[in-house]
Amino acid sequence: MNPPQGIALPPSLVAHPRPGDWLRVLPAGVIEVRPGKVELGQGVLTALAQVAAEELDVSLARVRMMPAVTGLSPDEGYTWGSLSVQYSGAVLRLICAEARGRFLAAAAARLGVPEDKLTVADGQILAPNGRASSYWELAGAGLLDQPATGGYQPKPASAYRVVGASLPRLDLPDKLTGRPRYTHDLSPDGLCHGRIVRPPSRAATLAHLDPAAALALPACSRWSGTEASSAWSPSARRSRCAPPTGCAPAPAGSAVRPCRTPRTCRTSCARPPPRPLCWPSAAALLLPAGSPRRSRQRTTGPAAHRGTRPRRHAD
Amino acid sequence: MDDERAAPATAVLVNGQRREVRTEPDTALLYVLRNHLGLKGTRFGCGLGLCGACLVLVDGLAAYSCDTPLWAVQGKEITTVEGLGTADQPHPVTRALIARQGAQCGYCLPGVIIAAAGLLGRNADPTDEEVRAALDGNLCRCGAHNRIVRAVLDAAAELRAGPA
């Protein structure tokens, strides 16, 4: 293999040069790919899966895209600017070409066949004499531990079979059937109780918040409130919200008719609300004893666009 | 998790199952579904009954769960997006949306699916205009609208044709 001439390694790869940080081959024949970019509906997980499948010569079904997780995934900065394929895709293209090359070299040694006589079919490495190996058979050899060299030429575009095809997005079935895929579906490890508490109207401020019931839960002994928005300042928390007024009457025959105008009450018009509702302006978290008061997020930007620290349910 | 231990138990009928939750009767149905019952498919969007992300079926009619208190759904049948079809056999609307790739971020789509299922429950053969009118309350800022409408029409045709 000739190293590509004059091609600088992409910045993400310079920062995270170990192929094993991006790619893992599981003994069951699954290729785990862990980009540092986040699926926001732009379809990037599918596109990056195609890049990996193409360079590794495996079917798309073998590729499992892993969610970006702070502290575990390669740090690729923000997901922005339509740059995910350009940056993450460039890395995966080189990494996967290099991984394929390393596996081929190892298989050649094991099978006693020159490397250029071997072919790869869906991760199976086949020799002309009928002997075979596979990525997953060689997965335990630590082949992905050494830093990438960029010395393995990726496929020319003319050889693409998977890249360039318009494929159904891998993330949509989960999103359309209600399986957890979004930040507010998170259930972080070690969280014994958590609620995002939202105000019922623009004018509402936090009147009081009683964490006693949650603190009484087993293992819950620390309270950590996080301000959800600077629009509701802590200094305004003590003020009371206005009692509900102006609910339109419920239409005849309507059991559930949300109040429309003005938006000052929190309940249906079918009966008056039992009492004024004052909602906190904080996203409240209760952490187990001994937890740091604030989560150690290394990012300072909008968390929604970053790999966030808590593990996601799925991605 | 039942965090309001002292609150009275309320029975709710969700996706064909009777579930018991302990919370105040004026808790929004959305929070009961997401927090107490762990059904994360129903989304918080605006919290004001304006965007349609939180729609659920209440006795077959689409209702804003963010703006519906728990007491108002006593004895009523609630269907969330998790209750429409199964993992192996998704609802025809869901299947059509996947086939049409009618999504970008996908956040609004459970609400869209609920609104569309509600429409098809009362009108088996809607026109393009009727679909658009029925989905008028579902805000999607990604711009998948036309694919969504075509998917709903596909699903209607499939439902009329009967089981394959």
How would you describe this structure in keywords?
heterodimer, A: alpha+beta, Aldehyde Oxidoreductase, domain 4, 3-stranded mixed β-sheet, 3-stranded antiparallel β-sheet, 9 strands, B: 164 residues, alpha+beta, Ubiquitin-like (UB roll), DNA polymerase, domain 1, 2 domains, 5-stranded mixed β-sheet, 5 helices, 5 strands, 14% strand, globular
Can you describe this structure?
By secondary structure, chain A is α+β, with helices and mostly antiparallel strands. Helices cover 19% and strands 12% of the residues of chain A. Chain A has helices at 11-15, 19-22, 44-56, 84-111, 172-177, 212-215; strands at residues 23-26, 30-33, 63-65, 119-121, 124-126, 132-134, 193-196, 220-227, 282-288. Chain A has a three-stranded mixed sheet with strand order 1-2-3. A three-stranded antiparallel sheet of chain A has the order 4-5-6, with helices on one face. Chain A has a three-stranded antiparallel sheet with strand order 7-9-8, with no helix packed on it. In chain A, strand 2 (30-33), helix 3 (44-56) and strand 3 form a beta-alpha-beta unit. In chain A, helix 3 packs parallel to helix 4 (84-111). Chain B is α+β, with helices and mostly antiparallel strands. Chain B folds into two domains: 9-82, Beta-grasp domain (Ubiquitin-like (UB roll)); 92-161, [2Fe-2S]-binding domain (DNA polymerase, domain 1), CATH 1.10.150. Chain B has five helices and five strands; from the N terminus they run E-E-H-E-E-E-H-H-H-H. In chain B, a hairpin with a 2-residue loop joins strand 3 and strand 4 (61-64). The interface between A and B is large, with 42 and 47 residues.
